[in-house]
Amino acid sequence: MANYWLTGEPNIKSGNMFIDLGCLVEVVGFKATNTHNYIWNNYATKDFKVYTRNWEYPYHNGHITHSNHASANNKWTEVLSATLPDSRGQQCNVETQVFLINSTVELNTRITRVVWLKIESSYPDTIGGGLLYFEVMVLPSSTACDTDIRVPG
Prior knowledge:
By secondary structure, the protein is mainly beta. Helix content is 3%, strand content 43%.
């Protein structure tokens, strides 16, 4: 997914972005390119976290349904906590960073439909954070759209 996103009004140092992937996928990592807000050089994300929603998806008549919205399995689970390098002053040369999910993260947490990106902080002397690019990396053959994948419970 390509995008350009800033945390909002000036001096809002944190922000949230929710990404609906359209179907269940096994997430293996993320690619992110920090922003500097073009010629103004006044935005740069420092610390961020990524969460997935750990839902169970039982199949009924061939369709996925959410099991119990109040269950312990219906929660956001942190799968990544990372820091992006300061992007200010780099013109168009900001490198895309690759972040892989630790293999110890449970499979039922890595299989998700929705990803929550939370910018925790921005660099000093900036107005806020943001991203020039963010991509959810998935295993190509592990989607509920294409195969009969079941989240272990």
